[in-house]
């Protein structure tokens, strides 16, 4: 047990959500007679959920500032429809139509950001209005009819990476991605070890780092193999790659930029943030703008996958995105949550969907189970907070080693109860 | 003379994971006494009171509690309330939107045939309010009351439950001098009705004037109990017992070497953001020299905080006119960010609601007002962040085992040091400190004073707002007085004394009766 802790570099509990995800996948694999962990199922899982996860990234930031965005599904549908219509009726080239859709998303975000930031209307109301406005808008401009989308977009929704070079038995693009991921992880681990040694003067033993690298390497390697050995012509899906790139970008934004710090500051304590020089209104505005921009991107990916924009595209997506964020341990009151944990939360939902479907459970009962999982996950977090610990899953993958275990002695110690 | 004991706590030990919060604590309280408990922050005072009132249920601690001659084992607060023990917390717990009556009877409604009997409740509320010396409409929403009045309503609420033992956790820490005096007077009144009071307090002068007995707790142990009739209560003795050493002087000696005027505010005019036409600052002008510590005295609601926050990037009120000069150069500050960039720092009065994000670690807090300071390219340099946090932890002597710990793990004094570090990292020329030692124990106060003097010695202009006149007299080189938004005067330290300041703060030639002063105060606030 002690050795296990060293390998995980802190508490086991930090990884509870990841472990739950892996366990869930394995259980479903057994229950479905090995149909869960297959190339085609994993590929579908990723390309069928990438757009929701893209939304969840934006939603995480919105929830961290203490707001909520109910309009994302409508905005996604609206942007996708504008793209399809502008390509079909005005003959715009596909790339221009995509840019137009993104611009529509940004404009929708600016509109909602304006009501929230400048006029102080709560995000719930602002975006409830937006939800109706943009849903009405989609139906209006499409006259309630599906519109075919340019073929070139298919790659964003369900495309695969090309194969090239020598026949390795694995799709070479996927193989390359897997190798890059393993090398990057190993590099980050080793560099983190020397840096923390330079800073604190305490060197972590080498073996746990190596075990960690091997462990993660095996997992990534296995995933590479699963994704890369599907039907000929398939690979790690393009929407998955888009998602990975966005995760890296947004992880960096939230953890390593001033804007990122500002959103946590505003969500944690608005007044104290304002007194520390944070422009609260600007932070609100940009976060809402970013959310709708990502919603437009999600809409584009979805239209690409289904090759047509429909008037009811995006219905209910906001709820999936919000559920992912909360399963990932974000706090309703704001200030807590990370992009990684949100992605784990979203994947738990996706695996549930996929696994239950494979087992022949109907959509009705799937919905019931997802609802219960959401409640259980949040109850788990609330329970942990009552014990005076920071949210486990919310602090999942902290920015630096040991944030969680150091933050542990909280309420109840005389230091805090007396002050 | 020997009065019976209403409460005996024997051998109370309370463990938290890794911490022995209370270690064999003994407390004996005589019926009808005002019994003060003092000790440094973190000594275990509040924990002891939570044990007594059932917040920590029986079984989660060791030891015996004998109350009114019976051994008790409360499972929760409800049970202790039923037994006549009421606790009034530091943070007031009433619901601002509800009326006084609704708050007093919340959870304890007078019900007649399944419906609330409002008339009976109102009548009873008026009676209760009379007992605490308030004559206000019982339908007034709590949010319209000042802090002092709210506290009195809390006490009225406790009285409504036929309280025998009233516990007050730092009752005067948020009150100004008149309200504090009223409250202490009321406690004396309760005593004459045979209600026993236990009072946790940092304010030794209050304890000396009002308490019949004082128990000092240090590091989770009872140090000593002093009794007034034995002539044992004097401030120095209590301090010695609290810190385990004697503090000769509560203020470190310091010689200032003021240089040129580096901070100058002229004809500053600000309007109330909510009530157009009402001025918060009326043509205020003042200056501070480099290396000088300047105090701002005034009653609560006089507009000191509002003045400073309006200067700090127009964070409060509507700016109507006036200019700010730093080192002789006029600057324009239209936002907090620009104020920080131009060398102004403001440490707000309430750490928990204004100064800190309680979710943050020490490390993130330290850099939060100057993220540019750790920027490398467009990204934050987290190694630099760690180094900066470590630097301030060392130089400010913050007691923590890691800068990655959450700020809530720190005691009040250490939290304040972290907040000071956060503002020192912005490298200001002008440092405005609003009530920098509120709710901090004696030992930590001394450290904070030394830090302030150290900052002045580096040539910074330091402004201190404080409601405690002895503190201002102890640490400032010059003191401005503020009354109803106007600066009414300025005194050098050697010319100032409490009475003169109080006169200028109330803008009167002589101090009027207590009642008139109170009235005036409410008009102001």
Could you characterize what this model shows?
The complex is a heterodimer of chains A (419) and B (525). Chain A is mostly helical and 419 residues long. Chain A has helices at residues 2-8, 16-31, 39-64, 72-89, 94-118, 123-142, 154-158, 172-200, 206-228, 238-256, 258-268, 270-275, 280-306, 317-327, 339-358, 363-386, 403-406, 414-417, and strands at residues 147-148, 308-309. Chain A has a domain at 38-159 and 237-398: ABC transporter involved in vitamin B12 uptake, BtuC (Orthogonal Bundle), CATH 1.10.3470. Chain A is 70% helix and 1% strand. In chain A, strands 1-2 form a two-stranded antiparallel ribbon. In chain A, helix 1 (2-8) packs across helix 9, helix 2 (16-31) runs parallel beside helix 15 (339-358) and helix 3 packs across helix 14 (317-327). The model of chain A is unreliable at 388-419 (pLDDT under 50). Helix content of chain B is 33%, strand content 26%. The longest helix of chain B is centred in the middle third of the chain and has 16 residues, at 177-192. Classes of the chains: A mainly alpha (419), B alpha/beta (525). At the A-B interface, helix 8, helix 11, helix 12 and helix 18 of A face helix 1, helix 10, helix 11, strand 20 and helix 13 of B.
Secondary-structure map with pairings?
The complex is a heterodimer of chains A (419) and B (525).
Chain A: H1 2-8, H2 16-31, H3 39-64, H4 72-89, H5 94-118, H6 123-142, E1 147-148, H7 154-158, H8 172-200, H9 206-228, H10 238-256, H11 258-268, H12 270-275, H13 280-306, E2 308-309, H14 317-327, H15 339-358, H16 363-386, H17 403-406, H18 414-417
Antiparallel strand pairs in A: 1-2
Chain B: E1 5-16, E2 19-30, E3 34-38, H1 45-53, E4 62-67, E5 70-71, H2 77-82, E6 85-88, H3 100-104, E7 111-112, E8 115-116, H4 118-131, H5 147-160, E9 165-169, H6 177-192, E10 196-200, H7 204-210, E11 213-218, E12 221-227, H8 235-243, E13 261-271, E14 279-289, E15 293-297, H9 304-311, E16 318-326, E17 329-331, H10 336-341, E18 344-347, H11 351-355, H12 362-367, E19 375-376, E20 379-380, H13 382-396, H14 412-424, E21 430-434, H15 442-457, E22 461-465, H16 469-475, E23 478-483, E24 486-492, H17 498-505, H18 514-524
Parallel strand pairs in B: 3-10, 3-11, 6-9, 9-10, 15-22, 15-23, 18-21, 21-22
Antiparallel strand pairs in B: 1-2, 1-4, 4-5, 7-8, 11-12, 13-14, 13-16, 16-17, 19-20, 23-24
Helix pairs in contact in B: 4-5, 13-14
């Amino acid at each position: 047990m002690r050795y296990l802790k060293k390998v995980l570099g802190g508490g086991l509990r930090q990884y509870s959500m990841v472990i739950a995800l892996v366990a869930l996948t394995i259980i479903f694999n057994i229950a479905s007679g090995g149909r869960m962990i297959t190339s085609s199922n994993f590929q579908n899982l990723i390309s069928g959920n990438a757009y929701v996860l893209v939304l969840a990234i934006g939603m995480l930031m919105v929830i961290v500032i203490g707001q909520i965005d109910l309009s994302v599904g409508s905005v996604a549908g609206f942007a996708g429809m504008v793209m399809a219509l502008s390509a079909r009726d005005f003959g715009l080239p596909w790339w221009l139509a995509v840019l137009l859709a993104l611009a529509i998303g940004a404009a929708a975000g600016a509109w909602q950001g304006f009501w929230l930031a400048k006029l102080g209307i709560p995000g719930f109301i602002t975006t409830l209005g937006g939800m109706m406005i943009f849903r009405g808008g989609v139906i209006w401009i499409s006259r309630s009819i599906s519109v075919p989308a340019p073929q070139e977009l298919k790659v964003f929704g369900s495309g695969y990476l090309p194969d090239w070079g020598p026949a390795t038995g694995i799709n070479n693009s996927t193989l390359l991605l897997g190798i890059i991921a393993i090398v990057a992880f190993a590099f980050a681990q080793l560099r983190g070890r020397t840096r923390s040694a330079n800073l604190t003067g305490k060197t972590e033993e080498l073996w746990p780092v190596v075990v960690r690298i091997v462990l993660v390497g095996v997992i990534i390697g296995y995933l590479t193999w699963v994704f890369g050995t599907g039907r000929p012509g398939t690979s790690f899906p393009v929407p998955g790659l888009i998602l990975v790139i966005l995760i890296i970008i947004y992880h960096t934004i939230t953890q390593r930029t001033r804007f990122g710090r500002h959103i946590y500051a505003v969500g944690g304590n608005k007044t104290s943030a304002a007194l520390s020089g944070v422009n609260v209104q600007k932070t609100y505005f940009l976060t809402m703008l970013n959310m709708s921009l990502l919603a437009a991107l999600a809409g584009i990916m979805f239209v690409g996958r289904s090759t047509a924009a429909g008037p009811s595209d995006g219905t209910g997506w906001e709820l999936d995105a919000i559920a992912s964020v909360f399963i990932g341990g974000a706090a309703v009151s704001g200030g807590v949550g990370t992009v990684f944990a949100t992605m784990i939360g979203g994947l738990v939902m996706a695996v549930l969907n996929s696994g239950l479907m494979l087992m022949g459970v109907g959509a009705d009962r799937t919905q019931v189970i997802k609802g219960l999982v959401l409640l259980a996950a949040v109850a788990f977090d609330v329970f942990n907070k009552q014990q005076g610990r920071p949210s486990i899953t919310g602090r999942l993958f902290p920015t630096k080693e040991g944030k969680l275990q150091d933050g542990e002695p909280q309420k109840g110690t005389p230091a805090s109860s007396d002050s | 003379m020997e009065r019976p004991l209403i409460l005996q706590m024997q051998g109370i030990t309370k463990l938290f994971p890794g911490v022995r919060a209370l270690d064999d604590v003994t407390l004996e309280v005589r019926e009808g006494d005002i019994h003060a408990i003092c000790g440094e922050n973190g000594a275990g005072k509040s924990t002891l009171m939570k044990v007594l009132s059932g917040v920590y249920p029986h079984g989660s601690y060791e030891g015996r509690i004998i109350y009114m001659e019976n051994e008790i084992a409360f499972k929760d607060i409800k049970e202790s309330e039923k037994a006549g023990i009421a606790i009034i917390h530091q943070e007031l717990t009433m619901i601002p939107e509800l009326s006084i009556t609704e708050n007093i009877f919340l959870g304890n409604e007078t019900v007649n045939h399944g419906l609330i009997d409002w008339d009976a409740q109102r009548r009873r509320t008026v009676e209760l309010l009379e007992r605490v010396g308030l004559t206000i409409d019982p339908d007034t929403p709590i949010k319209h009351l000042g802090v002092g009045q709210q506290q009195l309503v809390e006490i009225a609420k406790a009285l409504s439950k036929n309280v025998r033992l009233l516990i007050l956790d730092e009752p005067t820490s948020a009150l100004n001098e008149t309200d504090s005096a009223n409250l202490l007077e009321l406690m004396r009144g309760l005593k004459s009705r045979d209600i026993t009071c236990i009072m946790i307090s940092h304010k030794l002068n209050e304890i000396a004037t009002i308490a019949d007995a004082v128990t000092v707790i240090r590091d989770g142990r009872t140090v000593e109990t002093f009794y007034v009739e034995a002539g044992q209560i004097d401030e120095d003795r209590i301090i010695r017992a609290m810190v385990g050493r004697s503090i000769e002087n509560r203020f470190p000696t310091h010689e200032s070497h003021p240089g040129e005027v580096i901070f100058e505010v002229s004809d500053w005019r600000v309007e109330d953001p909510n009530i157009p036409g009402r001025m918060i600052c009326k043509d205020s002008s003042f200056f501070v020299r480099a290396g000088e510590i300047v105090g701002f005295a005034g009653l609560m609601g006089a507009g000191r905080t509002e003045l400073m926050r309006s200067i700090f990037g127009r964070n409060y009120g509507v700016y109507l006119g006036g200019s700010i000069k730093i080192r002789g150069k006029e600057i324009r500050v239209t936002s907090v960010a620009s104020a920080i960039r131009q060398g102004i720092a403001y440490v707000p009065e309430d750490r928990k609601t204004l100064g800190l994000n309680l979710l943050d670690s020490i490390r993130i807090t330290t850099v939060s007002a100057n993220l540019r300071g750790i920027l490398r390219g467009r990204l934050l340099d987290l190694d630099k962040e760690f180094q900066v946090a470590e630097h301030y932890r060392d130089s400010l002597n913050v007691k923590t085992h890691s800068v990655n710990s959450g700020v809530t793990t720190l005691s009040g004094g250490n939290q304040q040091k972290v907040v000071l570090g956060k503002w020192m990292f912005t490298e200001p020329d002008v440092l405005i400190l609003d009530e920098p030692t509120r709710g901090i124990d004696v030992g930590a106060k001394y450290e904070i004073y030394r830090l302030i003097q150290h900052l002045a010695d580096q040539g910074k202009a330091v402004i201190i707002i404080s409601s405690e006149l002895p503190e201002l007299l102890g640490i400032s080189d010059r003191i401005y007085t503020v009354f109803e938004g106007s600066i009414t005067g300025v005194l050098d330290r050697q010319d100032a004394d409490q009475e003169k300041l109080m006169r200028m703060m109330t803008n009167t030639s002589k101090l009027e009766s207590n009642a008139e002063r109170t009235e005036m105060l409410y008009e102001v606030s």
